[in-house]
Specification:
Elements: H1 6-14, E1 19-25, E2 30-35, H2 42-47, H3 53-66
Antiparallel strand pairs: 1-2
GO molecular function, one term: metal ion binding
Pfam families: HMA_2
Length: about 70
């Protein structure tokens, strides 16, 4: 998140209707996201943090395609 400014991040998040709420923490460089589990399968998000790089990569592509990003 350090290479993007807060406004760019907020504008990108606003374009994703499945996100209900978010909070950006500049001090830690983290992002807390509340999402609509009826629109995004929790298993897909869990796979993003898989120990398997391949599984995480596939989840990232699947999520991107699902959200039309």
């Amino acid at each position: 998140m350090a290479s993007l400014n807060r406004n760019e991040i907020e504008q990108a998040l606003l374009k994703i209707p499945a996100l209900k709420h978010y909070k950006i923490n500049n001090a830690t460089g983290s992002l807390l996201v509340e999402y609509d589990a009826t629109l995004i399968k929790p298993q897909l998000l869990e796979a993003l943090f898989s120990r398997s790089d391949q599984e995480a990569k596939q989840a990232c592509y699947a999520l991107s395609a699902y959200l039309a990003l």
